[in-house]
Amino acid sequence: MTATAPAPADGAPAPAVPPGSSPWQLARRELRRRPAVRVSLAVVVLFVLMAVAAPWLGALGGWSPDEFDKSAVDPYLGGLPLGSFGGISPEHWLGVEPVTGRDLFSRVVHGAQVSLMIAFLATAIVVVAGTAAGIAAGYFGGRTDAVLSRLMDLTMSFPSLIFMIAMLSVAKDVNRIVLMTAVIGLFGWPGVARVVRGQTLSLKHREYVDAARVGGSGAWRILTRDILPGVSGPVIAYTTLLVPGMISTEAALSYLGVGVRPPTPSWGQMIAESVAFYETDPMYFVIPSTFLFLAVLAFTLLGDALRDILDPRGGRT
């Protein structure tokens, strides 16, 4: 079936889309025509590069995220930063943390690394597990579908945030990043599985799938060669929309004190610590909050655009 690009918002006719365009080709063609999405994509790339280059950026600023600078705070004013706007200066590009004098630029870029790492790893677990479960349930049907569907219902019935807090509070001497990734992924896969199951049900009786089955292709070959490419568009769109939710979840758990533990920096943890200083040093609250807001907004806008392009029916429902 020939893919057609959605018409632009201004009513101008959409350019013809070559037959057989892949989801990635369609996405690239459409994203180039949307200035707001190009800006969002640039912000996403900037955050990813910042997370990858966090150790070098911290070294460029001259401070490690755990290094104290007592000369940057005033001990006679409760440890408030010296200077204007939270201690912003040539030595500390985004100011310093009250009391400790730790460099905010270094902590923000290292916090981006932690937050995005957890978000991407948790999203990968959710997408892989959800796609596998959804394809298996939709293609094989019967008892397999019944068992997996009930497992989806059971997982989605839990109040996920409460159980995340409980599980993270009980576990003590474990790697917090690995634990948070596993816990967030545990409660996130049913949403992807439901989307993929519905797509698989609509694809399993298509002519090309029946032809592959009659031609002697096994279930594994049909699933990987025929079904999986057919569900890739909605999965890509859903994946991009998952990332901002994962970033927010990690920030919320760290804000509540059950996520990443000090001295490892995290945006949510920094926001939680800044609450005590929001009147005397508002920049300590504004800076990590702004980075968190921009990351979530950029990923959300990019995900919405990809959903409209790759899964237009899902965007209208």
Describe this structure in words.
This protein is an all-alpha fold and 317 residues long. The protein is 68% helix and 1% strand. It is built from 12 helices and 2 strands, in the order H-H-H-E-E-H-H-H-H-H-H-H-H-H. Strands 1-2 form a two-stranded antiparallel sheet. Strand 1 and strand 2 form a beta hairpin. Helix 5 packs across helix 7. The longest helix is centred in the middle third of the chain and has 37 residues. The radius of gyration is 23 Å and the shape is elongated. The two termini are 22 Å apart. The N terminus is likely disordered.
Classify the beta-strand content into a percent band: under 5%
* Biggest sheet strand line-up: 1-2
What is the tally of beta strands?
Answer: 2
Query: What Rg is obtained from the alpha carbons, in whole angstroms?
Result: 23 Å
Helix content: 55-70%
- Shape from CA axes? elongated
Which regions are unreliable across 5 or more consecutive residues at pLDDT < 50?
Answer: 1-17
Order of helices and strands: HHHEEHHHHHHHHH
Structural class: mainly alpha
Round the mean pLDDT to the nearest integer and report it. 83
Number of helices: 12
Please summarize what this structure is.
With 317 residues, the chain is mainly alpha-helical. It is built from twelve helices and two strands, in the order H-H-H-E-E-H-H-H-H-H-H-H-H-H.
How do the strands and helices of this protein lay out in sequence?
Blueprint lengths: L22 H9 L3 H18 L1 H8 L11 E2 L5 E2 L22 H37 L1 H16 L2 H11 L5 H28 L3 H8 L4 H37 L11 H8 L7 H29 L1 H5 L1
Antiparallel strand pairs: 1-2
Helix pairs in contact: 1-11, 2-4, 2-11, 3-4, 4-5, 4-7, 4-9, 5-7, 6-7, 7-9, 8-9, 9-10, 9-11, 10-11
